[in-house]
Amino acid sequence: MRTLIAYLSYSGNTKETAELIAGNLAADGDAADMHRIGIDPPVSASAYDLIFIGAFTWEMGATPDEVKDFVLEVGYKPDNVALFGTGDTQFGGDELFCLAVDKLARFYQSRWDGLKIEQSPRGSQEFIVKNWLKGVLHDVKNLT
User: Fold this and answer.
1) How many CA atoms lie within 13 Å of 126's alpha carbon, on the beta-carbon side?
2) CATH of the domain at 104
3) What's the structural domain count of the chain?
4) Is the pLDDT score of 144 beyond 70?
5) pLDDT: is 94 or 115 the higher one?
6) Alpha-carbon distance 48 to 117, whole Å?
């Protein structure tokens, strides 16, 4: 299974979450191509069986422009997209927490709930990442 993990990270939290997802995939024998949104050259989304897109939530619940540009670069809405993101409830509370993840999940009509991480995925949130990933992979393997 070809997997892409595309992410945008300023503080390092979303990158850390992407790396945790990649590490868990590798532990299960699945490799993933990492793509730094806004830095790496464009990718061909159609070459992947599963695409993870990670973004933090910016300002008052906005999706960062670089992620919007990535969506436009892809040029279509793949049906194999799972979303993850990092946020901080102290800025905007629960209403705005990881709102970019919700917006992207609606846009892609993702079959999976988005993964929302408070700041860094370290500690107990590592288990949240593992369990979410396990659910996504279970669904993907049952669909093929």
Assistant:
1) 9
2) 3.40.50.360
3) 1
4) no
5) 115
6) 25
> What value does the mean pLDDT take over residues 48-57?
96
Token pair 């990442």 is found at 129
Rounded Cα distance between 49 and 111, Å, is 14
C-alpha 52/C-alpha 48 separation (Å) is 10
Q: Please state the rounded mean pLDDT for residues 112-121.
A: 94
The answer to which of 36-45, 85-94, 110-119, 132-141 has the lowest mean pLDDT is: 85-94
Chain position carrying tokens 């806004």: 38
- The structure tokens listed for 21 are 């997802």
Tokens representing residue 13 in the block: 């939290």
Residue 55, helix vs strand vs coil = strand
Domain range for 55 is: 3-143
Query: For 6-64, where are the alpha helices, taking DSSP H only?
Result: 13-27
Q: Which residues are 87's β-sheet partners?
A: 118
